[in-house]
Amino acid sequence: MTTRQASHAGSWYSSSKTELNQQLNRFLNDVTEKAPGKNVCAIIGPHAGYTYSGPTAAHAYNERVFLLGPSHHVYLDGCGLSRCDRYETPLGNLTLDRTTIEELAATKEFSWMSQHVDEDEHSIEMHLPYTYKIFESKIDQIKIVPILVGAIDAEKEKKYGQLLAKYLLDPKTLFIVSSDFCHWGRRFRYTYYQDQQGARNLSPSSSTTLPIHESIRQLDHEGMAMIASLDFDAFEDYLVRTRNTICGRHPIAVLLAALQALPEKKSTLVFTNYAQSSACQTIQDSSVSYASAYVSLVNQ
């Protein structure tokens, strides 16, 4: 049995079972707007350190597991699968669905992650303790399918969406899409700003009429509206125009493509929470945005 170690425990989140359990309980108890349990087939949630994004992520977890996360450390022109049998968390281990993983591998459209790549990536790992916590009462019945999504183009996003669409139809399956939203600041090489004077990239000498954090909020909410519209092409056009640094844009696009591949179903995507790690005031500041959403799927 091969186990992926919880490589980010103790740095990105607590490695203490007791402390982590208490933290997750607090985040989940603080959720005010909850996704309806019935017909929820997917959620979008952030993957940054819990100190910043934990409360926001809790807004996405309310029910019943494919885990789609972006690749931060390795270039991947496709999607990668894990060879592991178990994923470790401080709360306990999660079992991988080897049958489904091998079924995906048989399509010849997926590559395999090495153990190093698997453990180096945090976008999927950050959702594992939440997944364990939510399904704790029936954890022996839960199996996960982690998929690392690379920097793929629109054509491949649609291809993977079509491959995964049939799994969305299974009421026992939940898709978790891992994504933070705008990474703003010079350390991210992204200083997009928009006010009455139009859109531009800020420099130290730039003048602003709107607080930077408000410009970021408007930018993110425009993208969230494109996602909520379930319009794959509109979201792609938005990304081309703004270059918004939504790190999970490719997993989100795969989800949108999967939903579009199910014309017999009516999909509804609702954002439940939005936050920023800090309120940027000047070009010297930086922030990361977080948003949570759920997707409901019913017959037309």
TrEMBL record:
Domain of life: Eukaryota
InterPro entries reported in the protein's UniProt record: MEMO1_fam
Protein family: Belongs to the MEMO1 family.
HAMAP family referenced in this protein's UniProt entry, alphabetically: MEMO1 (MF_00055)
The name this protein goes by in its record: UPF0103-domain-containing protein
